[in-house]
Design brief:
Blueprint (H helix, E strand, L loop, with lengths): L4 E5 L11 H19 L3 E8 L4 H10 L3 H10 L4 H7 L6 E4 L3 H16 L3 E11 L4 E3 L17 E10 L5 H9 L4 E2 L2 H11 L6 E2 L1 E2 L15 E2 L1 H6 L1 H4 L11 H4 L4 E5 L3 H15 L7 E4 L2 E3 L2 E2 L10 H8 L1 H11 L6 E2 L2 H31 L13 H20 L3 H22 L1 H4 L6 H22 L4 H10 L36 H16 L3 E2 L9 H5 L3 E11 L7 E6 L6 E5 L14 E5 L5 E3 L2 E3 L2 E2 L1 E6 L2 E6 L11 E2 L1
Parallel strand pairs: 1-2, 1-11, 2-3, 7-12, 11-12, 13-15
Antiparallel strand pairs: 4-5, 4-6, 6-8, 9-10, 13-14, 16-24, 17-18, 17-20, 17-26, 18-19, 20-23, 21-22, 24-25
Helix pairs in contact: 2-3, 6-7, 6-11, 12-13, 13-14, 14-16, 14-18, 14-20, 15-16, 15-18, 16-18, 18-19
Ligand ME8 binds next to helix 1, helix 8 and strand 11.
Amino acid sequence: MEKKSFYITTPIYYPSDKLHIGHTYCTVATDAIARYKRMRGYDVMFLTGTDEHGQKIEEKAKEAGVSPQAFVDRIVTGEKGVKDLWKLMNISNDRFIRTTDDYHVASIQRIFRRMYEKGDIYKGAYKGKYCTPCESFWTESQLVDGKCPDCGREVHDAEEEAYFFRLSKYAKPVQELLESGTFLEPASRVNEMINNFIKPGLEDLCVSRTSFSWGVPVDFDPGHVVYVWVDALSNYITALGYLNDKYDDYARYWPADVHIVGKEIVRFHSIIWPAMLMSLGEPLPKKVYGHGWLVINGGKMSKSKGNVVDPYVLADMFGVDALRFFLLRTFPFGSDGNFSNELLISTINTDLANDLGNLVSRTTAMVEKYFGGKLIAEREEADGDAELIALTAKVRAAYAEQMDAFQLHLALEEVFSLIQRANKYIDETAPWVLARDESKKPRLASVMYNLLESLRVALVLLTPFMPETVGKALSQIGADESERSWDSTERFGVLPAEVQVHRGETLFPRLDMAKALAELEEREKAANGPQIKVEPVLPEVSIDDFARSDLRVCKVLKCEAVKKSKKLLRFELDDGTGTPRQILSGIHEFYEPEALVGKTVVAIVNLPPRKMMGLESCGMLLSAVREVDGKEELHLLMLDDSVPAGAKLC
Ligand code: ME8
């Protein structure tokens, strides 16, 4: 029988900075759902990727002094970049799209043209506030005190030619879509969309810009680039081969079963995206699920607030699976969750070390101790077994229901109710008492078997959340491949009667809260390194302009503090001309004058002379200056003493 398809996506990430734990949360959640669906026998397509165009990226690249493509390449494919992070987090995406991929760019041009030819895109004028020095358009609401939010300078009214998408035309069908069935979940987001965006009136959307160039060019009107959201949203179909030859899966997977997205981009996915698809005459996705944010002390993580949490540090210290588990067990998927290191450590201790880890280690230890690792075939059932067996079946069914509704934390809650019940079953049956009496061996074997079986079912259900560790635990309890599938959990009693356990390493060691917090702080500090403020690269100068600066090697003949000045040092330098040169330099707070005599330094010698504290300075010494952790550091440029005075720098 042909498998049913299941197409699931995450948002494609802006590679404007390194990804943090909030991004990781979304992708790990999507991964758990994708793994669950595969386990249930679906033909899954799980797509993620990066959204690489737009003004923000163009500006960041400029600041970094590299091309936009080089800038995004570093964040997407470079060390500890997006792709590395997903590999580390064991993300099982089937495809990874970059919006700078050629096939995607070509599809976007065709999509734009199709909507234009249909009459849904037309040419108009984009009105806004323009900051001339920054060459940026702003909307009224983006201004800060009526000024440019980037440079704080005056802005003026301006217009630029732009294309518009007739979003207004689709207001009614989009509203009907939002109100019908379960297109948008959680249901609370539906009213938010209707009241905040549809009811006030949907305006046509500006879908091209001419004031920057890092985007997909409109092929029939070159100076325009396609609005980044039109480009980004379309990734969900271009990655399947829509209007391109790269892939051929559109018929197989579209419409998507679910787009998993963060709450702030629900608007784009539940209003603009369906309207675009209606315009293209394509089927609509079956569902958009808007998850909440991970917040810190109630506020969103952001680099400017300095409160972003680095997933690399957490995964390295606690393990990938513990981190995946924590994210999905702790925070209800549809709501915001307050992230803290304390919560992470206590969840690992309570659920993983105490409940799950203990159950695995106690059970395997007892099978080893009482049966040499291999159970005997004779069994003796007793009252109390039926309840554990019935609970196992109930948990499996409830888990499936919650997973199908993307209530990942509730699905885990179910599994843990079984794990806790199994731990209690150990206390109730007291195997150590049964073990004292040889005639109770069949009963003891039965208790052990029931524990292994309920544990096996719990572990299979945990597989989408912690694939690595669960695999190890299933090996410890002697489950082979055929005893790890979803179908194998339908029935209690699948493990062979004489199952062989292999006690192994402790899966989740208990953590000491204070020690773990202190170590984490150290690791975070080490990972961040000193905060060095990097100045943006200045605009280009010609080689001729540069060559007009006369930079020379000088030897320090004399150096002394200038009287009544805290900062100034007076240098007498041999610049190779035979006449000593006097230069004043404000570096006393960084150097004692005696220490500099005899050093080989570099000066620019063709600056106009300048008077300071009554003394003439003929040039300037070169230093390397940087701000580290908010404090200025200065290093006078010094060369090897073998370089002679008067040598020119070029
Ligand atoms: O929005 N907690 O990209 P993005 C939970 N390129 N989720 C968070 C989060 C947090 N603290 N911070 C960010 C974009 N996210 C677009 C998407 S899709 C066609 C284009 C989530 O890198 C955020 O909600 O800014 C969003 O869903 C995702 O990370 C990507 O954010």
